[in-house]
Amino acid sequence: MMRNGAAGGGAAAPRPVRVWCDGCYDMVHYGHSNQLRQARAMGDYLIVGVHTDEEIAKHKGPPVFTQEERYKMVQAIKWVDEIAPGAPYVTTLETLDKYNCDFCVHGDDITLTIDGKDTYEEVKTAGRYRECKRTQGVSTTDLVGRMLLMTKAHHSNIDEDLDYRKHTDNFGKGPKGHSPWTGVSQFLQTSQKIIQFASGKEPQPGDTIIYVAGAFDLFHIGHVDFLEKVHQLAERPYIIAGLHFDQEVNRYKGKNYPIMNIHERTLSVLACRYVSEVVIGAPYAVTADLLDHFKVTVVCHGMTEVVPDKDGSDPYQEPKRRGIFQLVDSGSNLTTDLIVQRIIKNRLEFEARNQKKEAKELAVLESSRADALLTERHSVAFWRSEELFKGGPSEGSAVGVLRMCCPTLSCTNYADVMSWDLVA
User: Fold this and answer.
1) Domains and CATH numbers, the chain
2) pLDDT at 58 over 50
3) For a Cys staple, 69 with which of 19, 65, 112, 248, CB 3.0–4.6 Å?
4) Cα distance between residue 71 and residue 73, in whole Å
5) By its UniProt entry, which NCBIfam families does this protein fall under (predicted)?
């Protein structure tokens, strides 16, 4: 997809549009993936800058994942063409020029430095900034809240939502209320969202169809390492990931697992470059019907324990009988349990980090509102001057023109304009 004109005759081929994104990408979820998907659609080549642990700790507080883990997670997202490790926290024109990027893309939220400044101010001023829609219903704050509260309200078909949402407020709310960017909201799955994430590619003759199954909860570097190793098993792999329903995952994992519900886990796995297709609500036992339907040639499982099915049988007995079952050692020992342990260990630090972040965001909002009010008062003072009103426009047109100059004006008639107290 070339966007800088059309090649024709003897004209030189147009230069690809290069797009820049950057961020912490700590606890990567489908909201991050969706932002990168939208950014990639604005150009031809996407470079993603990832901040170091030191930079994040300075401006926000210590991250949950190490920079090496975060680099690998971002690289595994299928819309990313290249990563830039150690990108500066403040996005500058120098950075865009260094990577030959036309513009930078960020969501419609705000990112602030330790002293409360917009990290994208310079590129915005230069006109090299684009905005995409933030994904509603998912945030790191919300996911951490689920881990710490140990409720099941986030599962599909579980009616504990009111109590759950009441408690999650604590993880993204400071003493002055919610920021619209850090607070918790509700995710609603749509078929369009799945279509946007899906590759839409059918297996081709000569492809090796590999089936893997599991919860793939809090899709993390352990999953990426496993899927990468599975991908290396064949020259032309077509990996199908079977995702178990929430209630099934809870049966074999217990507690309040899965942390992410089936809809959220689907998008997280679809965003991975190694996965070609997802079976939503796959049966726990890998059956003959499933293997025949998808024409599976290899079934893989990692080194984690395989819990027996409800009747005590081995869920992989059919692929083992066919001789197509294979254990894959990813070399990673990271599990969803270990991630939850990291969060619990640093709970107070994480809450303090989020409340500090939200306090800065609220300060920006209050400052913007104050600036708007000051502009409004100055406009009223100007239009109330004798030079403009004496023998000038009628009462109606005076207020009308004033409202065009200041759309936020709260006055509705001439008397209001003339009597409004302008003391700040």
Assistant:
1) 18-132 (3.40.50.620), 140-187 (no CATH), 191-333 (3.40.50.620), 349-419 (no CATH)
2) yes
3) 65
4) 6
5) cyt_tran_rel
